[in-house]
Amino acid sequence: MNKLPPVERPYGDSIGLTGDSAYMWAIFLMNEADMNEDYIAYDDWKSMVESLKPSPGKAVPAVVHYAKLEEAIKNYGVC
Asked: Taking the model in full, what pTM does it have?
């Protein structure tokens, strides 16, 4: 297992993640799925990575609410 990304939540929000934190977690989970040869999960996480990927002219979301992402983070014992 790789080093876990930080869980960063926006000020005053206990259920969402910052856009940067969600992006880092999605990359981490995509790589974990790839190493475990779970190609269905890999495709799901890759899709999320692509939607969160920073690019010129696209604002980084202040808060991201993905139930699947929150559940995956909980599975790693991080709240």
From this structure: 0.90
